[in-house]
Amino acid sequence: MITLLKNAKVIDPAQGKDGVTENIYIRDGRIVAKPSDTEKIHQTIDLNGKIVMAGAIDMHSHIGGGKVNIARMMLPEYQATRNLSEPEAHICTPSCTHNVTPSTTDTGMRYIEMGYTAAFEPAILAINARQAHLEMGDTPMIDKGGYAMLGNDDYFLRLLAGKADQKAINDYVAWTLHSTQTIGIKVVNPGGISAFKFNQRRLNLDENNVHYQVTPRQILQSLSRAVNELGIAKPLHVHCNNLGTAGNFQTTLDTMGASDGIPMHLTHIQFHSYGTEGDKKFSSAAAQIAQALNANKHISADVGQILFGQTVTASGDNMMQHLNAKIANPKKSVIMDIECDAGCGVVPFKYHDQNYVNALQVRHSQVIRI
Where in the chain is the domain with CATH 2.30.40.10? Predict the structure, then answer.
């Protein structure tokens, strides 16, 4: 059977198409060339200039796992309350009550409304992997996957502190990927989550974790090398040290060189792109970061856009979440250890367009994207 999508506005950067109006033919679920005049068109749908594009992929979105469920339990006032007369599925609006901690069903529906067809949970702990997969499996409409989190777990840090050879570390990374059924490795504040538990409140790239006597640079070098040597398609996914602090752009620039030329992905990079200029000693260093990304072809990045309004921040970065807990809105938070594997910080937060820092974050994330 052949279906014709008529008057489609096609966006396909790979083919150089940016809003080109054309017809699309589909046979047995696949796009095909225009059929011959003798072939029958079984169904015609006039799209009237609506956009047709490949499904978007969110490569970093907390859609399942421990932190998300802690947020749901901590903020029951933001859970959905449905009128029984309403249909189960509906189009969300800014006034929806579940815009902060959506359920699995709402997560899938809202993604598909926006044109996304896949999303990846970036912080799956081995100890929580079964539950995370069950939750993602309960999220409808979109494809799901995840990255296993290493770099602050006791076993890995003991390997590194004990001068284990790279093969042993590769074996551990491979075992973790297989056991968690994930597609990549994520590291959050390398060494810093662990250091927080030993009362360090900041950890720079070349500063030792006081307990294990290893540096974030050593962690990044070891894990990026393991990912590369194992042939994992997804580069090491890195949440840099010193998230959210003024002047942290220098840590980010230094981190780009920490993998010794091996591909590495820096996530939500706008939170790692701040300078110390101006009266408030807090400024955007987006231009320097953008220039460095262009110059370092082995480094990729995603922006980490923020939106004004109520949200809940969820991160394994206990250092930053502990610091932010004093400005939580509403005034509650969870900061905890996860079985010596990592950490968990859940802090509700409201971004204001009249707040200097929040407004700067939105603006400089646009600069990085450009």
Answer: 2-53
Q: Over the stretch 6-59, which tens digit does the pLDDT of each residue have?
A: 999 999 988 899 999 999 999 998 999 999 988 999 999 999 999 999 999 999
Q: How far is CA 359 from the centre of its chain?
A: 21
pTM of the model: 0.89
Taking only the tens place, the pLDDT of each residue in 177-202 is: 999 999 999 999 999 999 999 999 99
* Residue 95 burial by Cβ neighbours in a 10 Å radius (0-12, 13-18, 19+): exposed
- The 8-class DSSP code of residue 303 comes to -
Residue 331 token pair: 């005034």
What is the maximal distance between C-alpha atoms in the chain? 76
Cα 339 from chain centroid (whole Å) = 23
Q: Which of 77, 2, 62 is nearest to 32 (CA)?
A: 2
CATH of domain 2-53: 2.30.40.10
β pairing state of 17-27 and 2-12: antiparallel
| 271-306 pLDDT per residue, tens | 999 999 999 999 999 999 999 999 999 999 999 888
With CA atoms as reference, report the closest residue to 147 among 170, 169, 173, 120. 120
d(CA 49, CA 39): 25
Find how far residue 262's CA is from the centre of its chain.
Answer: 20
Q: Decide: helix, strand or coil at residue 13.
A: helix
Give a three-class secondary structure readout of 105-168. HHHHHHHHHCCEEEEEEEEECHHHHHHHHHHHHCCCCCEEEEEEECCCCHHHHHHHHCCCCHHH
Can you read off the two tokens belonging to residue 135?
């939750």
